[in-house]
Amino acid sequence: MYISKIRIENFRNFRSNEIEFNDGINVIIGHNNAGKSNLIRALGLVLNPNSKKRLSIHDFNMNASIDELRQHSPKVSITVTISKGDTSNDDDLVTVSEWLTSLTEDYEAKLTYEFFLPERYEEKYSEEIESLVQSNEQGVPKELISKAFKTIDNEFLRFYTYKIWGGEVANQNQADGELLQKFDFQFLDAIRDVERDLIVNPT
């Protein structure tokens, strides 16, 4: 099996993006700050059991409009689609069996990481954001959005929680931690200075 697709919503520089992969080796190329490392970190939030799952306010995509923030608290969502590959075996199918979204011979499974404000805090959140908007009616939109995220950081971020769902999110089937442990995820930090990072010091 292999990762065939990832959909990233509201994570760092990804507003709403879907990226497809091929079965086999994939090479990600882009200029500095294009989001290459953020893409790998997004994969890690879903597949790396050792990664830190709680996010900071700076992990949210800040390009939301004030109307969107008034409607609902911001949420990070990352969905990884796993498909049958050329070298897939029966053990692979067993691993993802609880997360299947397509039961055809070329099976497909999904894992979704969500970082969100629980529903019981939503009313209080709406009141706070509405109060902020009303008191800054003549404010610059970007400044108002910045204040909204500051309010989220100060008043609500501590209540945020995360879940990793298997299959369709609507089914609310939480992925088994032991099965997630079967994924071998390794992340190497980017090499910024080749001479410093790769040349062995003879002393």
Q: Helix and strand succession?
A: EEHHEHEEHHEHH
Q: Report the structural category.
A: alpha+beta
Strand content: 15-25%
Classify the helix fraction into a percent range: 25-40%
Describe the secondary structure blueprint for this structure.
Layout: E1 2-11, E2 14-20, H1 36-47, H2 66-71, E3 76-83, H3 90-96, E4 100-102, E5 108-116, H4 122-135, H5 141-156, E6 161-166, H6 177-180, H7 194-198
Antiparallel strand pairs: 1-2, 1-3, 3-5, 4-5, 5-6
Helix pairs in contact: 4-5
Q: What do these coordinates show?
A:
By secondary structure, this protein is α+β, with helices and mostly antiparallel strands. It is 32% helix and 21% strand. Strands 1, 2, 3, 4, 5 and 6 form a six-stranded antiparallel sheet that branches.
Short description:
This protein is of the alpha+beta class and about 200 residues long. About 30% of the residues lie in helices and about 20% in strands. Strands 1, 2, 3, 4, 5 and 6 form a six-stranded antiparallel sheet that branches.
List keywords for this structure.
single chain; 203 residues; alpha+beta; 7 helices; 6 strands; 32% helix
